[in-house]
Amino acid sequence: MDVPAYFDVVDGGFVPTRFAASQWSAAQVVGPALTGLLARELEREHATDGFVPVRLTVDLFSAARFEHTTTPTVRVRDGRRIRVADVSVVQGGKVAARASAVLLQPSEQPPGELWHREHEPQPPALDIAPRSELPLVPLFSSGPDTQTWSVKPTDHENAGRKRTWQNPIRVVTGEALTPFVRAAIVGEATSMMTNWGDKGIGFINTDMTLALSRMPEGNEIGVEGDSHLSERGMAVGVATLFDRRGSFGSAMVTSVSNAGRQISNAQLDIAVSSRM
Hints:
By secondary structure, the protein is mainly beta. 14% of the residues lie in helices and 38% in strands. The strands form three sheets. Strands 3, 4, 5, 6, 7, 8, 12, 13, 14, 15 and 16 form an eleven-stranded antiparallel beta sheet that branches. It has a three-stranded mixed beta sheet with strand order 2-1-9. The longest helix is centred in the N-terminal third of the chain and has 16 residues, at 31-46.
């Protein structure tokens, strides 16, 4: 069985597949595809010698198109415990997106007790979301009921807290996802989980910052919105990432109003059903 992916490897770079089309425009590459590709390149080039990626910041400042794409990367700092690297998405000689990563050397935990989130996000039950080695259609939940999940966004046409549970498609055809790249792809759903209201989605994120205390376990990852703050067409959203073991990271997005091209809940239904 062919497993869907966002990009094919072509002539020393990448070409987006049909799965990479954005809901905002069919001619534009979707954010999770770019985020996953940038994370892949940073991990492949710089997660060596025991270094582990703990922070990824992606800037999505220009629409990436369905064109041949290269991803030049550079190591900015290479210390004993801290490593920093940058990567860009280049199309037609122009930079369409960029990312930076901080990688650390793991060490022992310091002593003492710390505050923790009072209510941990809850994954869907296994009979609702059985484990799978293959990608699955995303599940969604909203409001205080953490055990009612469905694949139809219109079931969650409300102003309540949103969450999703995802087993994403691959970044590159024929290549399995690493835990870091998987977290980057699903983490981009922070924009949807924090900007999704009873009238759909009217904010488009310009970035995503992912911070990880550990790598996710298993193929499925959840994202639960923690906050949405907005005024004068500018928004900030924060979410918690979790797996069946518990929470393992946070993500933050800043977004700008795109009300003229608001994505309705019915449009979200169509976008999700097209992946089934």
